[in-house]
Structures are given as C-alpha cells and as structure tokens.
Amino acid sequence: MTPDQIRRYESELSERKDASVLERAVKKNGILATAQDDIANVNMTPIFSIDLDTGHVANQKQSGRCWMFAALNTMRHAMKDTFNLPGDFELSQNYTYFWDKFEKANYFYENVINTADKPLDDRKVAFLMETPQQDGGQWDMICAIIEKYGVVPQSAMPETFNSSASGQINSLLNLKLRKDAVEFRELVANKASRAEIDEMKDRKLQEVYRILSYSFGEPVTKFDFEYRDSNKEYHIDRDLTPKTFYDKYVKWDLSQYVSIINAPTDDKEYNKTYTVEMLGNVVGGREVKHLNVSMEDFKQMAIAQLQAGQSVWFGCDVGQSSDRKNGIMDTKVYAKDELFDVDFSMSKAERLDYGESLMTHAMVLTGVDLVDGKPTKWKVENSWGDKVGDKGYFVMSDAWMDEYCYQVVVNKNFMPENLQKAQKQEPKMLQPWDPMGALA
To answer: In the 8-state DSSP scheme, what is residue 63?
Structure first.
C-alpha cells in the first residue's frame, strides 16, 4: 500500500455526497440497524395457510443444544396431539444431554486411539484436539442416543444449572479429554495392548460419568409419569423406564426419519448419499447419513410432511440476514449492499466452499404459506424462549430458505420413490471438516 493509493481512496470517499450522513448513521447506530429495511416486517407477517398448533416454545438458554431441543420438540408435538398433553409439556433435554456428553467422550477416545500413530500436526489430529466435544450435534446423533437410552419427560430429569449454562462443563470436559489424549497417545506409542488401552479407557469413562452425574444429576432409570391433560384430567403411569416410555408414548420408528441436505457444491452430486469421517457420538451406533437433493425436492418433502400435520426438524445458518428481536429471517431484512455501495453477494455453493456459511442452528418448521401451490414464507419454532420473535416463533422467507437452509429431516413416507431408492445407497465419506459435518 502506497501513500498515493491511500490519497486516491480518500478522494473517492470525499466525492460521495452521502458519505458524511452515512458515516454518522453507521457510527451511532451500528451496521445492522442502519441497513435494516422495514419492508421485511410487512412482507413477513406471521400468517400461514398451513399452521400447526405446537404449544409453547422451549428455551435452551445458555447452551448449544438446539439440535436436541428441535428433535425432542418434533416428538412432543406428536405426543401432545395423541395424549392431549398440556401445551407446556416437554421431554427432558437434560437426560439426552447427559448421555450425549458421555458417548461423545467415548467417541473421542476411540478417535484418539485410531489416530495415535499420526503426528500432532496432522490435520485430523489437530481437528480432534481443537474441540474434543461440544454441545452441538446432528439429527442422526440424537437418534443414536434415543435408540440406546430412550427418553424421559422433563419432570423425571429436570434442567440443572450446568445443562442450561454449559460453558463451565464444556471447559472442564475438554480439559479432561485433552489430558486423557496425552495418555492414550503415550500408551499407543509404547506399544500397549488393546486390553491395556481398554482398561485405561474404562477408568477414564468412570471419571467422565462422575463429572456428568455431579453436573446434571445421575440419569433416571425408573420413574412415574404423572400429569394432568389439557382437560385437567389426572393420569399416572408407574414404573416406566426411559425405553418403555419411548415405546409407549413417542412410538416413532426412527429408522423412517432421514436427513436430507441441499449442498450445491461441485463435490456433492444430487441424489447421492454422504457421511462425514469422525462425526458421531455413539460408537457402533447410528451413523450420520445425508441425501443431497435439489432445493425444489428439499422443500416439497418438507411441505408434504407439514400438510400431513407433522412438524419438520431443519438446520440452517441462523445468523445470516436474521432479525432476532422481531423473529424475521429474510434475505432483504438488511440492505448492506446499498448502505456501503458494495456487492456482498455470493452463491450458496461459494459460501459453503469459502467458509462464509454452514449449518449453525437447528429449529422446527411448524407451518408454511402456500400461494398457488408455491411456498412464500415458513413458520419456525425456535428454542430461545418466548421473549424473541412472536412468542418464540419466527417467520422465514422462502428466499432465505433457498440460501441458508441446509438440512431437513423427513419421514420416508413423504419422499418420492426415486429419492427413497437413492437414500439406500452406501454413503461417500467426506473429510471431518466438510461443512456438511457442521454441528448445530
């Protein structure tokens, strides 16, 4: 950079008639407030031709459990209708959180053992050590937990300080797992037998179990399900286990629910399946598997499920063009290009390839507005409590879905025959850092 260049930049700016007023506005109000276009509020009125009644909105608080909340919300929606449950009924996110943390520790240990012959600066080893475990996850990961451990109502294992504010427990667990990685790598380097490695792993998992039990409470094994339904009638079901509760009250065949993605990058063909190396939680459990489809197919399957009265788990990049306070996700909510006279546009594929976007949050589709059979906007149930949006519900424009939605989960019954067949393919393995491995 030379002084002549800087003087040229200064001259170009001084020639702009609106530069001073825009500078004052941006300095005082910030970029987003200055760029906000109120027309989005008008276009995104929360009225939908298909609108499911799903009750109150849950609150994940200061934790990254959106994927878990969204999955359990879709299940409680169905339970609410079947058993006439009150609108504030919830399944225990703390129960599934405990087992996810426990299984992630074991999953991390296995990955450390399997890569122990690689140097520390190997990209896969560095990837593992960057974040040994975290709150985030994907649909197949919550399925793996439920298939192994079942679920319980929130009354049987309520929230704790650490489940609602996960910063302390995550820091402590990652410290422990990194320390344990040192010992596992040393054992492998010293030619220890697998029996010796497993013996140490057993001790380490016992310590993890203790840490989690103190932080979240020990997982419930038997409980009574006691409640009054929305008509105030009393019910009690005694001596249930998490598995029998799931079988009796949720009753979903999770093998029927599959992950559909839209990743329009050159390395991922449509109508092909993909998995991600070193992504999961339950060793030997359900693997992450995505079917990549066009956006048209993506939306049609979601619409079909909503038309049948069932809400839809979905993953997106929630921070893009999103007004959290008013609950609006719309590509036109902020006119940043106009404000700065700069072209910020990128294609969806470019954003994925160049690290500008990936899945960061999971929520639930609970409605859609169809005009002449085409979606114009979608109703979204978030898990940030009822103080944002319309009592916790957001409105998402169809254009925003095109650009920033990456995943939906649908029942196979709502998939066309050609996509059901495609979903059965053996998946291609993606690298651990692929954007489709992002954890919501």
So the answer is: S
- Contact partners, residue 420, CB within 8 Å, separation at least 6: 412
- Per DSSP (E only), the strands in 212-252 are 223-228, 234-240
Q: Residue 140 in contact with residue 288, Cβ under 8 Å? A: yes
Q: How far apart are CA 424 and CA 31, in angstroms?
A: 47
Active site (catalytic) residues: 66, 361, 382
Residue 57 identity = V
Please state the pTM of the whole predicted model.
0.96
Token pair, residue 284, equals 């030997």
Q: CA 277 to CA 391: how far, in whole Å?
A: 39
Rounded to an integer, what distance in angstroms lies between the CA atom of residue 36 and that of residue 268? 35
Residue among 180, 235, 184 nearest 211 (CA): 180
Contact 281, 103 (CB under 8 A): yes
The residues, ordered by sequence, that sit 6+ positions from 151 with a Cβ below 8 Å of its Cβ are 72, 75, 91, 92, 95, 96, 242, 245, 246, 250
> For residue 207, what are the contacts with CB-CB under 8 A and spacing of at least 6?
176
pLDDT at 367: 98
Along the chain (440 residues), what's the average pLDDT of each consecutive run of 10 residues? Answer: 96 95 97 93 93 96 98 96 93 98 98 98 98 98 98 98 98 98 98 98 98 98 96 96 98 98 98 98 97 98 98 98 96 96 98 98 98 97 96 98 98 98 98 96
Spatial contact of 279 and 288, defined as CB atoms under 8 Å apart: yes
As a whole number of angstroms, the distance between CA 262 and CA 276 comes to: 15
76-100: string of b/e by CB count within 10 Å (b at 16+)? bbbbbeeeebeeebbbbbbbbbbbb
